[in-house]
Amino acid sequence: MEKTWNNKAWFFVLPVLLLVAFSAVIPLMTVVNYSVQDTFGNNQFFWAGTEWFTEILTSSRFHDALMRNLLFSAIILAIEVPLGILVALAMPKKGIWVSVCLVLMALPLLIPWNVVGTIWQVFARTDIGLLGYAVASMGINYNYGQNPLDAWVTVIVMDVWHWTSLVVLLCYAGLVSIPDAYYQAAKIDGASRWAVFRYIQLPKMGRVLLIAVLLRFMDSFMIYTEPFVVTGGGPGSSTTFLSIDLVKMAVGQFDLGPAAAMSLVYFLIILLLSWVFYTAMTNVGADKAPKRDQL
Amino acid sequence: MIDLSWMAWTWPTAIFFVAIFGLIALMGVWEYVSPGGHPRVGVLRFETTRGDRLFVSLLGSAFLCLGWLWATDLSLWYALVLCAVFFVLVFSLV
Amino acid sequence: MTATEPTRQNEPMPGPGHSEAALQSREEMKSGRFRLKALVPTIYIIFLLFPVYWLISLSFKTNQEILSGLTYWPRNFTLHNYSVIFNDPTWYETYINSMTYVVMNMVISVAVALPAAYAFSRYRFLGDKHLFFWLLTNRMAPPAVFALPFFQLYSAFGLIDTHIAVALAHCLFNVPLAVWILEGFMSGVPKEIDETAYIDGYSFPRFFFRIFMPLIASGIGVAAFFCFMFSWVELLIARTLTVTDAKPIAAAMTRTSSATGLDYGVLTAAGVLTIIPGAIVIWFVRNHIAKGFALGRV
């Protein structure tokens, strides 16, 4: 759509600007102020310079949390994206079953995050949970409260359960937007199932897949509630991801300075990743537009 | 007047934010005087405007400073020189 | 693709009727494979529903039955756990608290997002793309980063433990979400409609409320639903900003579970109650779920 240049449109955006500035810019400014100072409470602040940043950047606690979080995000993406594509491809395309599938699949997405944690906390217990009981009766010594590996597996399975549907829904939306003519052409050409996927479905899903990867990466990078409810960041600190560590520091220990410095480093990483994904997203869209004209 | 003591303002951070907002305002004025944002395709191989280049410079500078703090014990003022070089590079190449 | 070009030119394109019949016969031919294909979503949905079933099943059991050993369905079916919640004000008031701030947030988010989304979908203006990106970064920002400054900010305004504080704080991610979703829907409405209305002598507010809003009614519904949902599922900020008067049900769950030595029956019953609002409304937005979760970009 051709848009007209009109700077008066700013007045329409003004309410959003003011509201989001109030709830995003003022807190961020405060975080910057805290990050260069030390406090002992009572609103008494002392200049600390870049001390906290140096401390955070060189502390193994932060490095470990960051590495754990990156590993977690990588595993999540490696499982959820292929699984999501597979389920989306196998979903029915017409009839009442489409609606039933969509509604049932979306259900985990609408459950409050701490309830997701509670569900899995109970479900994975060996004494009262179905999953834990089944695993234990297979003779596996499974205890997510004691064994770090079991805790990781539980948290990852929980996230797959919680969020794979998002990938499925997005891929499905991309798939149904492919015109029937494409499949007909492929049929005439005698294209194999793999060729149809590789040259028709995957390129058409490209844009939505990018959004899916963006959202899954970002949300797994800031995950807090679900693992916190299930494992509390433990055993030890084996499932302490960035957000859990940050909240522990800020709200638990009330270390304003280090917590603020860590928030800023965390936020800058998020900002960089958002920008990379956003640029990729807009440029993928821009690549597609001229092609449509050529067809 | 609302009590702002909880925000714990200091002169350096105040100057920092005034500088950032000043840059954004300057960008606005520049865009108003010569609209279009001078889009071009640079070394990153996608189209960027002046605003994009400013954002890349600022974000890159932030990471340069963090890297400086992580790698050396030297004063951060040296890193600022590096940032200035980075600014020039981004505005001429990207 | 180029190698197959001649074939396509020689053969006439099959008509829609033809292709439908062909597809049908193909499906009948491969009905064995078709059933196999249906297996994947079926297994996936079963995997999704098992934990939910377990939650519901536990909520109808007595605590004694839960702890005495594993039973696959409630042997002594009881509504006791639910009656505990509905008879205890400290429980059901948290439910009302959650509803209150969620609805407040929904109204605020959609109200401010409507004009902004209209501006983004219809006009180009100074810094529009950067503004759009900045809104996105707020959706991506971790709530953990904002928990502490939010606490300080709302303390300074004396708003701690009020519903409006949580509602405003949730605007951080819900306003960007609403703007993105609505912009997606509004871009689907042709601009000629605006122009025709102006030629017909409609003023802008009259056009916007009488013609434009009915056209994107489903979009407004979807945006409202997603604001509701994301405010409803969020806990970290809501818990940080409340003490007792505006405490959300999610926070009540964490507290009670530790205080009374894990009352699993009541805990799971409260969990079931928090799933219900989403489960009820989901049917109405089923065709737009993907669009909502993808920030209107599908």
Automatic annotation (TrEMBL), chain A:
Residue ranges spanning the membrane: these are 12-36, 70-90, 96-115, 122-140, 160-183, 204-224, 256-278
Instruction: Report the family membership.
Output: Belongs to the binding-protein-dependent transport system permease family.
Q: Which PROSITE patterns is this protein grouped with?
A: ABC_TM1
For whether the record's keyword set contains 4Fe-4S, the answer is no
| Keywords noted in UniProt | Membrane, Transmembrane, Transmembrane helix, Transport
Q: How does it sit in the membrane?
A: Multi-pass membrane protein
According to UniProt, the name of this protein is Sugar ABC transporter permease
Keyword Protein transport belongs to the record = no
One Pfam assignment? BPD_transp_1
The lineage's top-level taxon is: Bacteria
- Chief place of localization: membrane
Domain (ABC transmembrane type-1): residue spans on this chain: 66-277
May I ask which residue range the UniProt record assigns to the signal sequence? none
Q: Which PANTHER family match?
A: GLUCOSE IMPORT SYSTEM PERMEASE PROTEIN GLCT (PTHR43759:SF1), TREHALOSE TRANSPORT SYSTEM PERMEASE PROTEIN SUGA (PTHR43759)
Locations listed in the record: Cell membrane
Coiled-coil features, chain-numbered ranges: none
InterPro entries named in the record: MetI-like, MetI-like_sf, Sugar_ABC_transporter
TrEMBL record, chain B:
Q: Does the keyword Membrane apply?
A: yes
Q: Which residues cross the membrane?
A: 6-33, 54-70, 76-93
Name this protein carries in UniProt: DUF2160 domain-containing protein
User: Which organism does this record belong to?
Assistant: Jiella sonneratiae
Keywords per UniProt: Membrane, Transmembrane, Transmembrane helix
Its domain of life reads Bacteria
Automatic annotation (TrEMBL), chain C:
Location of this chain's protein in the cell: Cell membrane
Its keywords, alphabetically, are: Cell membrane, Membrane, Transmembrane, Transmembrane helix, Transport
Segments spanning the bilayer are: 36-56, 99-120, 132-151, 163-186, 207-233, 264-285
Q: Which SUPFAM superfamilies did the record assign?
A: MetI-like (SSF161098)
Q: Which InterPro entries match?
A: BP-dep_ABC_trans_perm, MetI-like, MetI-like_sf
Keyword Membrane listed? The answer is yes
Any Pfam family: BPD_transp_1
- Where is the ABC transmembrane type-1 domain positioned along the sequence? 95-285
Highest rank taxon of the organism: Bacteria
Region (Disordered) residue spans: 1-22
Q: Does the keyword Transmembrane helix apply?
A: yes
The record's listing under CDD domains reads: TM_PBP2
Coiled coil region boundaries: none
Q: Where is the composition biased (Polar residues)?
A: 1-10
Membrane topology field: Multi-pass membrane protein
Instruction: Please state which protein family the record places this protein in.
Output: Belongs to the binding-protein-dependent transport system permease family.
Protein name listed in UniProt: Carbohydrate ABC transporter permease
What organism is listed for this UniProt entry? Jiella sonneratiae
Give the taxonomic lineage as stored in the record.
Bacteria, Pseudomonadati, Pseudomonadota, Alphaproteobacteria, Hyphomicrobiales
